[in-house]
């Protein structure tokens, strides 16, 4: 009896694991990919990057007929995962999701890696930062906030949204500079990500959070915070009431976090082609669009060449912003 | 009322029930495997939920996590290998009970009190989610700093015996926690240019090493000695549990309440709840000297606490979309995906789904008892395996678990280093538990201290200016003062007695 129980337990565990494998259509041998592909995600399970990696993994799996295993290699502000992608064999069986941090980490002196260490495949997402204040904040619109910032002594106002020198910190720095202020006029309070920062905003610990609007969404919906503006060229159709900086202040400043799929450098062309066309089908699928919209994430498509150009531009912009903020070490 | 009926209809659909059952078995399996955590169980379920309806997908997550947190107790009791970090606080105590031949009672208590604690947590989730979430929302870095201080104070209670050795272990854990990128300035510390070290020292890999591998080393040394081998009794695990409930009902109530509250606080989950409850139980026990000898009291409190924290963590997640722990961080993503945007509106827009989640929570904790019983019965066979075969098998599981934490061999290296280190520490009377606690709370302490100081422009008094922070601060200082006074008194009395 007991023997049977253990067996059934093990069998059920194995079945749970194997279920996803069995659901796949069989494919002809010989054509890439012939075995499972690893998709490395440099950020933790549950975050936006992980979710994006997993939906893309699930869609590629259907398309390519091989399991795509999302593997989280986290830590070191993203260095660990980005290194793991760059240093893997360019055999088409390890790819990864790379994020805006690859354009920042080497400026901060945390790694030697740059976007040039990858074979870019596709850019799939970009999210601009918003400017969020607490619901109890006296600033009803971005103009009032901007004036209050200008009038306040340097370091009086506090902002948060991510770690020191993270993308949302740079967004704040860029915005302050565009207003003609010093990069540290509003002091940055490093946080463990956008969610803790939004909580601190509601708890009254800080004045401003410059994370993306989808990251702030729960607190906005709960009526605990207000989004005053986004740092993007256009309004987000999902949050049409939030003006751009250009609309409200006449400041033409925009930036954003992005995510794309890449492989180690020197991936053979035919494999890259297979992956890019599969990615394009995944990007255009209803599942992907629905998923990204349900999370409030922005979608943007760029193929290999445009993605490389995009990363080059991002790299230069981040380098300048980090130098200005005194965050560049290399 | 209609929503409640709809919710019952949604849950008691055969396919949903089947999903819940499968998730329960899956959760049991993951929880009982050291290194595979409840968080990982949730992450593994996410891609499956892409293609499922809201109720079964949330049901799967709720059930799997509740089971995993309980199932972590089984290997902790049998092999001194906590299956999930939430069982680490009382792994030692459980294993000592097993050595005393009380495995049955211990596991019976674990399964019953896990289920009861879970139900208390759900009751709070159902009845006062908005109010508790409101309270949790008032916590900023100042409050968390004091909480981390209080948590570290627990180390004094969990390290049995010599307090100096406990402190050594705690401080060592805090120092190891400094490795990696510093949470405030983003500067790498003690990484020597190594990419893996930049991610810091993974505490779960350390935990597997310090608890399980050190135990394996000890077992290896004693392999050919006769004696102390556990006689596996296949008795009735539920015998005596009712008596335990009568005797330790206060511990159960206190553990469940504290667990729910800690779970509801963003950034602290089931593992911290178990540590704190264990320490509280020892502090207020009438027989604190029995702790650390295989005593049931602390286990009752901590095992109730970690399961109530699982439900507690859903409180801020549902009401404000703020994760109460790493599991609900993933759940929030799933909620958005299923169109149930967290926030107060979730209770008005889709009440049937929320009620369905509540029903599943209760259901999961009820089926935990028969399923847990089955898992215990089958796991017990493990103890019949000859030790020469069992020890290498356990090592294999440890290696798999440690690898899974970092998805690289770095986790295995960490596990082995801390396995040897833990063995040396324990052979010299230095407890390993405070080290793990230091590692868990070190970053929380540092991060909240640094951000508080930045926010306050370096003014120390800011730690006492906010009402909750002030009360917590005064409480912490009082606890420390009391401990100092007591320590000084014993120190003074000792020479007089001699």
UniProtKB/TrEMBL annotation, chain A:
Residues 1-28 form the signal peptide. Gene3D superfamilies: Bordetella uptake gene, domain 1, Periplasmic binding protein-like II. Coiled coil: none annotated. Keywords: Signal. InterPro entries: BUG, Bug_dom1, TAT_signal. Pfam families: TctC. The keyword Signal applies. This is Tripartite tricarboxylate transporter substrate binding protein.
Automatic annotation (TrEMBL), chain B:
The chain crosses the membrane at residues 16-46, 58-78, 107-132, 144-161, 167-185, 197-217, 257-280, 313-337, 353-376, 388-421, 468-485. InterPro entries: DUF112_TM. Keywords: Membrane, Transmembrane, Transmembrane helix. The keyword Nucleus does not apply. The keyword Membrane applies. Residues 17-437 form the DUF112 domain. This is C4-dicarboxylate ABC transporter permease.
């Amino acid at each position: 009896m007991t023997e049977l129980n253990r067996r059934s337990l093990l069998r059920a565990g194995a079945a749970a694991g194997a279920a996803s494998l069995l659901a796949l259509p069989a494919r002809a041998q010989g054509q890439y990919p012939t075995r499972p592909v690893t998709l490395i995600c440099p950020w933790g399970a549950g975050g936006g990057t992980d979710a994006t990696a997993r939906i893309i993994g699930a869609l590629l799996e259907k398309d390519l007929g091989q399991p795509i295993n999302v593997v989280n290699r986290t830590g070191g502000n993203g260095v660990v995962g980005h290194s793991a992608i760059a240093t893997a064999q360019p055999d088409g069986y390890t790819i990864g999701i790379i994020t805006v941090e690859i354009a920042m980490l080497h400026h901060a002196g945390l790694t030697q890696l740059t976007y040039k260490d990858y074979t870019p495949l596709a850019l799939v997402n970009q999210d601009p930062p918003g400017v969020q204040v607490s619901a109890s904040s006296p600033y009803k619109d971005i103009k009032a906030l901007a004036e209050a910032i200008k009038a306040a002594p340097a370091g009086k106002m506090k902002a948060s949204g991510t770690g020191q020198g993270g993308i949302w910190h740079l967004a704040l720095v860029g915005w302050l500079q565009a207003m003609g202020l010093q990069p540290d006029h509003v002091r940055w309070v490093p946080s463990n990500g956008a969610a803790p920062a939004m909580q601190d905003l509601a708890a009254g610990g800080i004045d401003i959070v410059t994370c993306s609007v989808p990251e702030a969404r729960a607190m906005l919906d709960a009526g605990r915070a207000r989004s005053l503006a986004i740092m993007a060229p256009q309004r987000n159709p999902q949050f049409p009431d939030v003006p751009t900086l250009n609309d409200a202040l006449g400041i033409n400043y925009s930036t954003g976090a992005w995510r794309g799929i890449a492989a180690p450098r020197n991936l053979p062309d035919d494999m890259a082609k297979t992956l890019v066309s599969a990615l394009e089908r995944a990007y255009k699928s209803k599942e992907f669009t629905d998923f990204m919209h349900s999370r409030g994430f922005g979608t943007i498509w760029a193929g290999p060449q445009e993605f490389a150009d995009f990363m080059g531009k991002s790299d230069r912009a981040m380098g300048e912003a980090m130098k200005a903020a005194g965050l560049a070490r290399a | 009322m209609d929503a409640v009926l709809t919710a019952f209809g949604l849950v008691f659909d055969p396919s949903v029930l089947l999903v819940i059952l499968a998730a329960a078995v899956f959760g049991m399996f993951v929880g009982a495997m050291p290194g595979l955590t409840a968080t990982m169980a949730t992450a593994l379920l996410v891609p499956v939920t892409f293609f499922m309806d809201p109720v079964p997908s949330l049901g799967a997550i709720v059930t799997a996590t509740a089971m995993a947190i309980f199932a972590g107790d089984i290997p902790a009791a049998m092999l001194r290998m906590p299956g999930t970090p939430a069982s680490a606080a009382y792994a030692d105590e459980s294993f000592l009970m097993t050595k005393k031949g009380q495995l049955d009672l211990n596991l019976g208590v674990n399964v019953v009190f896990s289920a009861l604690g879970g139900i208390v947590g759900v009751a709070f989730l159902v009845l006062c989610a908005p109010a508790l979430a409101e309270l949790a929302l008032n916590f900023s870095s100042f409050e968390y700093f004091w909480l981390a201080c209080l948590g570290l104070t627990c180390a004094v209670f969990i390290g049995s015996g010599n307090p100096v050795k406990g402190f050594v272990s705690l401080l060592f854990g805090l120092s190891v926690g400094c490795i990696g990128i510093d949470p405030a300035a983003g500067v790498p510390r003690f990484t020597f240019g190594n990419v893996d070290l930049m991610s810091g020292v993974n505490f779960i890999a350390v935990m597997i090493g310090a608890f399980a591998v050190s135990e394996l080393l000890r077992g290896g040394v004693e392999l050919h000695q006769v004696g102390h081998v556990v006689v596996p009794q296949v008795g009735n695990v539920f015998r005596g549990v009712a008596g335990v409930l009568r005797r330790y009902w206060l511990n159960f109530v206190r553990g469940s309440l504290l667990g729910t509250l800690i779970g509801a606080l963003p950034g602290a989950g089931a593992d911290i709840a178990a540590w704190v409850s264990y320490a509280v139980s020892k502090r207020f026990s009438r027989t604190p000297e029995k702790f650390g000898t295989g005593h049931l009291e602390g286990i009752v409190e901590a095992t109730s606490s970690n399961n109530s924290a699982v439900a507690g963590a859903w409180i801020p997640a549902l009401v404000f979309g703020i994760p109460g722990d790493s599991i609900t961080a993933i759940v929030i993503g799933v909620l958005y995906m299923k169109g149930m945007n967290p926030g107060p509106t979730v209770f008005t827009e889709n009440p049937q789904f929320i009620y369905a989640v509540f029903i599943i929570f209760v259901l999961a904790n009820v089926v935990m008892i028969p399923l847990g019983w089955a898992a215990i019965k089958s796991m017990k066979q493990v103890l019949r395996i000859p030790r020469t075969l069992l020890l290498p098998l356990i090592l294999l599981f440890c290696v798999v678990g440690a690898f899974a934490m970092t998805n690289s061999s770095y986790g295995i290296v960490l596990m082995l280093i801390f396995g040897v280190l833990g063995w040396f520490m324990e052979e010299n009377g230095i407890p390993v538990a405070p080290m793990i606690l230091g590692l868990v709370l070190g970053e929380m302490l540092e991060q909240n201290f640094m951000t508080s100081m930045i926010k306050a422009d370096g003014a120390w008094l800011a730690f006492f200016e906010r009402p909750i922070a002030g009360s917590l601060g005064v409480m912490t200082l009082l606890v420390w003062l009391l401990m100092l006074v007591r320590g000084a008194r014993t120190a003074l009395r000792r020479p007089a007695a001699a």
